[in-house]
From TrEMBL:
Protein name per its UniProtKB record: Serine aminopeptidase S33 domain-containing protein
Residues of the Serine aminopeptidase S33 domain: 66-175
Lineage of source species: Eukaryota, Viridiplantae, Streptophyta, Embryophyta, Tracheophyta
Region (Disordered): 265-331
Compositional bias of kind Basic and acidic residues: 265-307
Any matching Pfam family: Hydrolase_4
Segments of skewed composition (Polar residues): 308-331
InterPro entries linked: AB_hydrolase_fold, Hydrolase_4
């Protein structure tokens, strides 16, 4: 069983940038870490975190003095946090959130190998760091998963009952379903998001491009239909797998969602609380929204694609650096 699952993971294709886009150095005297090859910022902490599977992952924590909530960001499979650095900083500014990003085992300067189980341990280590190091409460955390990052995101959300919200950006139903149009979940499948999404207790925003040629938009649509607490989704008309940040609606819709969940009451919830079953979905469910905004062509995308299709043996080329979201007009 393990060999088949490992083969599936290989097909799904983890493509850590080689060489990594950054190095980590320790400051003399203070022993503080800093990322090389990126602009040093006073509001960014660089950390190394031990996972329960024995690997050590690199993460960064971006502070925003105006933040009420914290975003835990799980990136795609062809990027590392050095390449995502500017985007993560800009999202923190634009959305007025604290933000933690991290590299999966085997990515960037994280040790170990990228596997499904390791990514679950990786996001858990990042989550524990938010709680133990920064004092962030579970109910003040928003999980954000992009493409393959939707796997660890939903696995953690499936196990936590008091999260503030979840964002799924070009998510997958499961690893096997990206490659083949199967109707059932097999034991050797990986990232079985389709089986976990209905157990998530918090509002879920789904964003997907209608022209996605890596993970079909039907993945996002089906996950949204299965959500217990639906929020108005964003189907980006003409958007592909790697360019959703180029559309003005992307940041506008995210801002709207963050604003909405900031206002939610922070009453503790239990995963077995039956009152949730009687709460109307109308609190979060709005009509499906399709973006009619054209792409902002003044920027190049910072996102990195997942080649999780029949040609998964070849990684998607990473996209060049951009002026992150600067030209997007805010709502």
């Amino acid at each position: 069983m393990g060999m088949v699952t490992s083969s599936m993971a290989a097909k799904l294709a983890f493509f850590p940038p080689d060489p990594p886009s950054y190095r980590v150095a320790e400051e003399k005297g203070t022993r503080e870490l800093r990322m090389m090859e990126v602009a040093e910022k006073e509001n960014v902490d660089v950390l190394k975190l031990k996972t329960k599977r024995g690997t050590e992952i690199v993460s960064l924590y971006v502070r925003n003095p105006e933040a009420k909530l914290t975003l835990l960001y799980s990136h795609g499979n062809a990027a590392d946090i050095g390449q995502m650095y500017d985007l993560l900083n800009e999202l923190s500014v634009r959305l007025r959130v604290n933000l933690m990003g991290y590299d999966y085992s085997g990515y960037g300067q994280s040790t170990g190998k990228p596997t499904e189980e390791n990514t679950y341990a990786d996001i858990e280590a990042a989550y524990r760091c938010l709680q133990d190091t920064y004092g962030v409460k579970e109910e003040d955390i928003i999980l954000y998963g992009q493409s393959v990052g939707s796997g660890p995101t939903l696995d953690l959300a499936y196990r936590l009952s008091r999260l503030r919200a979840v964002v799924l950006h070009s998510p997958i139903l499961s690893g096997l379903r990206v490659m083949y149009p199967v109707k059932q979940t097999y034991w050797f499948d990986i990232y079985k998001n389709i089986d976990k999404i209905s157990f998530v207790q918090c509002p879920v925003l789904v964003i997907h491009g209608t022209a996605d040629d890596v993970v079909d938009c039907s993945h996002g649509m089906q996950l949204w239909e299965l959500c217990k607490k639906k929020y108005e989704p964003l189907w980006v008309r003409g958007g592909n797998h790697c360019d959703l940040e180029l559309y003005p609606e992307y940041i506008k819709h995210l801002k709207k969602f963050i604003s909405a969940v900031e206002k939610l009451r922070e009453n503790p919830r239990s995963s077995t609380d039956q009152t949730d079953k009687h709460r109307a979905n109308a609190d979060y469910r709005e009509k499906s929204r399709t973006s009619t905004d054209r792409r902002d062509n003044s920027r190049k995308s910072m996102d990195h694609a997942e080649k999780v299709n029949n040609n998964a043996e070849q990684p998607e080329s990473t996209r060049s650096d951009i002026n992150q979201l600067n030209s997007i007009q805010m709502a």
